[in-house]
Each structure stands twice: as structure tokens, then as C-alpha cells.
Design goal:
The protein has 414 residues and is of the alpha/beta class. The protein is built from 12 helices and 16 strands.
Length: 414
Amino acid sequence: MTASVIEHPYGTAALNRTAMLKDIDLHLRHLTIEIADRSVGSAGNQAATDYVGDMFWNLGWTVSAQEFEVVDWEDGDASVTVDGQSRFKCSASPYAEGCDVKGSLVVASSLEEIRRASTQGALLLLTGKITQTPLMPKNFPFYSDDAQQAIIAALEASGALAILCATAHPPMIEDGDFGLPTVCLTEDVGHALAAHDGREARLVSKCRRLPSMAKNIIARINGTASSRIVITAHIDAKKDVPGALDNGTGVTMLLLLARALAAYDGPFAIELVALNGEDHYAVPGQLAYLSANPDIGATCALNINIDGIGYHEGQTAYSFFELPPDFQETAAALLTLQPNACPGMEWFQGDHAMFVQAGCPAIAVTSNWLLENIATQKITHSKADHMDLVDPERLFESALALKHFIEAIGQTRL
């Protein structure tokens, strides 16, 4: 990787609180304000990965970029009209194809109704119970639900020209592999539109899919060691959101650890990975990393995944997955017993899951408030996720704790 040199104002040896807090503010402002959109394949995403790669390089790490093809997406106006008169507000589903289509409006609220309805050449409006749970992308590699796959298959086989989803939890479908144009409506708008069942409707959606490129950034130190510790954080965010907690703080932690571990000479190779795709329907960066590391279960002694750290309420949660006894004991002493830290419950909605599935021990680091409210919180994936919600002290504390932990487990393996 060719990296430009960025003069850093604090020096590579600075690990004191003041210098690290300045770093935190610098990185978060750049990743969440100066870069407005880190969605995979966007210009902002490419700028963010270049920034992180340059920072790693300047701190003395060996840096590589793992490139791959992706689908980016551009939003556009969308509307539904009935009989050329009544107009209903809607929005394109993320990563959907655009369209300008006309057909009879058909309403369905269950899989059985979809299968029974005359949907060939129709605009299919989904309402009610079937819309209450978002569908996983049909080709998602780490999880599949048979009931959801049956719904997707029925929709794609329906012969409908487009799918309209009336739901309180948009988007119902966020999938660049889904074969039909798709839009979102509120439940109230969907109810009003459903009253026109059987009438001729027209859907215009001006969004479009865009082929693009993206990359993971991988920094290594002590690379000749036979076993490695892989520290991960996803660098992407949802389209057009600041993504401070999800996951600007995680990427900032990688940069803090790059400084803190720059002189590491223990028994492990250390690998810092800015993964690119956790918030993308196809998780392309994760798949690229696994493809390049088919032996990850055998060569990785530990994954530490950082996602959602730093929320201003509550403690930092450390969740442990299949840690060997010496790691478990050290982690309990140096991580969870810190004043603003606690043990976290097991959760699998993050990049540590792919390491655990491969048989690698893992530690997931996040904000305990987000973890306890994972099903109901409305901060992440929204425009509310800005850096004012971040307590920089939590990042400072965790970076030092993880540094000491990594150094300590190296001593147990000497």
C-alpha cells in the first residue's frame, strides 16, 4: 500500500491521557463530520479507509489494503399514484433498483396470501404481520431463516413488477441481491393505499445501484510470530448517517491501539483490521477477509472486536466467547474489573461472530447500555448517532486496558 505521510501533532510515543483524548476528538471529527458518508463503496468510505491506512503507516505498522468489488447505491425520489390522481408518499428501499412501472394494485399480509394472489404484472403491497420483521438479505452468509427465505422466494416468483412494504420498522427489505424494485411506506400510508386494492397504480422510484470498489485496511506488527491476535472494527456505516457509535468509535480505538502497541514485541503477531461491510447487505469486507484467511481458527489465538463502544451512559461491556482459562482469568482481572467496565452478555450481531464460528476465541467490546437495549434503541443506523453521544474517557480507559491485557497474555504464553 502506498500511503501519504501525515504529520501527527502528538508524536508516536504519547500515551498520556491528554494526548489520547486529543486523538479521539481528531479521529471522530474526521470520521463522522468531515466525512459525511462512510457507506461501503461511497467516496466517503474510500476516504475513511485511506485515512486509517495512512495513520497506521505513520505509526510504523506494515499496512495492506484488501480490495473488492461492491454495490454502492444512490437514493432518489419515489411515489405511488392510483388512477393517475391519488399520490402516496414512499421512499426507495436501500439498494433497491429504480423503476417506472404500472400495474394492478394487489394487497397481501401473509405468505399464503402472496401465493394465492394474482400478482403477475401487479404492484404488490405488503401490509400487516408479514411486514413487522425486516427480512435478512437472501444471500447473507452467516445466518439464514427458512421462513424468511420462503417469503423472499415467493416474492421473487410472484411475477409482480415491484414490492411496496408498509411497515412501522423500515426498511423491510435491504438487499442488493433482491430481484424486484422495492419501496417503503408508513403503516398509515399503506392502510390508505390498500383501500385502492385492484385499481391501476404507478410506481416511480429514481434510485439506482452503482458498481464500486472498497477495501479492508490491515495493519500488522511482529508479523513473523506463528500465532496472532486480530483486533477488528468495522469502518463502514449506514448510508448518510454519522455513525459515531456505529462504528466511528471502534475505528478510533484501532488507531489508539496502533499507537499504544507500536512497540509491542511479545509472542503474538498483532493484526489491526478495519473491516468494510458490517452494515452492508452483502458483508463484502468480511467475506474477503475470511477468503484470504481460511485457516483463521488455527492461526488466530484471539479476536477482539470493538463495535459501539463509548456511549455516554453506563459502562463498557466485555463479552467473552470460548476464552482459554489463562485468557479468561487475565481478562476478568484487567478488563471487567475496571471501574467503568463490566462483563457483557453474549451477543452475535458483530464481526466477532465470524471468528467464533471459525473456532477462534473472542472478546466483544461495546457499550453496555447499547447491549442491554439492543432490540429497542434507535440511535445506531440513524442520524442521531453523532459524536456528542460519545464519552471519550471510555475509549481512553478501554484502550489502556486492552493494551495491558494484550501484554499480560503474552507473558502467560512465554
